[in-house]
Amino acid sequence: MTHPVRPTRRQFGALLFALLSTASRRAFAAGGNPKDNGLGGTGYISPMPDPDNGLGGTGVVGVIRGFGSVIVNGLRISYPSNAEVTIDGEPANPAAMRIGHVVSLVARRENGAYSTKKLDILREAVGAIEFVSDRKMRVLGQKIELGRNVKSDGLAVGRLVAVSGLRLPDQTIVASLVEPVAPGAAQLLGTVTRAKDGGLEIGGQRLEGVAESMLGRRVLLRGAQRGATLDASHVADAPWLPRGAERFVAETYLERYGSTVTTASGLDLGDANGMSFRGVVRAVVSFELDPAGGWSVQSFEPTESLGAHGAAGPRRMEQEAPKAAPDQTPPPSPGGGGTGFSLPGAPAEPGGFGPGGGFGLPDPGGPGGFGGPGDMGPGGPGPGGPGPGGMGPGGMFHPPGMRRR
Fold first, then answer.
1. Residue 228 zone, left/alpha/beta (φ > 0; ψ -120 to 50; rest)
2. Could you read off the pLDDT of 92-126 as tens digits, one per residue?
3. How far apart are CA 269 and CA 254, in angstroms?
4. Is 381 within a domain?
5. Do residues 183 and 114 both lie within one domain?
6. What is the reported pTM?
7. Is 294 inside any structural domain?
8. Residue finishing a domain among 183, 216, 237
9. Tens of pLDDT along 321-374?
10. Do 141 and 205 form a contact (C-beta atoms < 8 A)?
């Protein structure tokens, strides 16, 4: 059953920019090498270039459950051996992908099979463990619950880790993979909200070096933790939905408040009465943009019911996200005139602290090969198969800068 809903002005403006940016991409900065503004300089670009030129694909966001192609949200999606893969915005070998990573991609369907040429992986938090007890921990101020298949062996205060997973509506991260990493810049991915003291924060982590214009936006930032504050040196827009798609299949936590259903990332699906649940659920949702500019929910596949756990309750946005005309880039953060930024990589330590080189899903293996295009899988995500462990991504991230008008 189809349930047309309407996004808010803030959500529609952000989506309109994401869609039209594929048709009016900004020119690269001359010379090709972006300027790193250093601490306090927040060159503003997307860490994830458009996956496809033009519209027409299916945007897929969710936890990787298996390989032999890549299995996400019950879909088997093939990719070539030379597929473009990024991890935290940095080019990576396809073999660096792991079961438990959260992937974003645009898939094309041909003869009943899905395929893609680009896969983007972003991890929610990269930093030192500040607290760990039982199956809960904290990294960069983020409350983290370990998923049922994530092992806690070897997790200790001070360990440097990268956490992948999905956020609950209250912004707690439910980890699907925890990987050890080498020393490097702290990294945080999430929606910027207003702190009680009037400043800005992500999931309770106080932020410095982030412009007011970022309020309400989902961003990827890197910087240094100074006491209770994360001092951001680099900030980049990180839309939840991949660009270059006209329909989406996304794994997310949903919260019902009255008759309104909202994703954990803040997307308001409106009066979605066809989704019969109470409180919070984890689900795979298919939806698309209808001709009138609203959301049309095509299917809803719940996989876990949490009741009131993780609920955020009624929310009020103090400020709408700034609007950007179709021919303009989003407004940059203050602190310098650079056109881009350079992020240090965070390679995984060899071996790790548990089986498979990480703490995540049992033996969180990489892809076992590049099979032919796969067909539609089961209706909901199932457990991924094991595979050998290995090294994570490393090196340096140097995305192209973007010229400002």
1. alpha
2. 999 999 999 999 999 999 998 999 999 999 999 99
3. 10
4. no
5. no
6. 0.69
7. no
8. 237
9. 343 333 333 333 333 332 233 333 333 333 333 334 466 544 556 664 444 444
10. yes
